[in-house]
């Protein structure tokens, strides 16, 4: 997550990294804008608080290892 937040005249950079599989990464970006990720969904707990993402993760976890969703 990388988003520039301007406080006064000086930009303050907010950065965080959460390692997820490609399928989850793609789903996260389908659901949330970069701004939402930076300001609201900036932790694992915050992401999983969203029912849409939680449902996707549960669905993906029920698939065999190596399964790749086709979107």
Summarize the structure in words.
The protein has 71 residues and is α+β, with helices and mostly antiparallel strands. It is built from four helices and two strands; from the N terminus they run ββαααα. It has helices at 22-31, 34-39, 44-48, 51-61, and strands at residues 2-7, 10-15. The chain has a two-stranded antiparallel ribbon with strand order 1-2. Strand 1 (2-7) and strand 2 form a beta hairpin. Helix 1 packs antiparallel against helix 4 (51-61). The longest helix has 11 residues, at 51-61. The two termini are 23 Å apart.
User: From the alpha-carbon coordinates, what is the Rg to the nearest angstrom?
Assistant: 14 Å
Approximate strand percentage: 15-25%
Overall 3D shape: elongated
Helical content (DSSP H or I, runs of 4+) = 40-55%
Which structural class best describes the helix and strand composition? alpha+beta
Strands ordered across the widest β-sheet: 1-2
How many individual helices?
Answer: 4
Order of helices and strands: EEHHHH
Low-confidence stretches: none
Determine the mean pLDDT: 86
Topology, number of strands: 2
Largest sheet: 2 strands, antiparallel
N- and C-termini, Cα separation: 23 Å
Secondary-structure topology with pairs:
Layout (H helix, E strand, L loop, with lengths): L1 E6 L2 E6 L6 H10 L2 H6 L4 H5 L2 H11 L10
Antiparallel strand pairs: 1-2
Keywords:
71 residues, alpha+beta, two-stranded antiparallel ribbon, single chain
Q: Can I get a quick summary?
A:
The protein has 71 residues and is an alpha+beta fold.
């Amino acid at each position: 997550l990388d988003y520039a937040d301007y406080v006064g005249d000086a930009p303050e950079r907010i950065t965080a990294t959460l390692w997820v599989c490609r399928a989850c990464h793609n789903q996260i970006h389908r659901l949330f804008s970069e701004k939402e990720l930076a300001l609201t969904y900036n932790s694992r707990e915050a992401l999983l608080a969203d029912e849409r993402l939680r449902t996707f993760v549960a669905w993906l976890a029920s698939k065999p290892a190596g399964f790749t969703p086709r979107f």
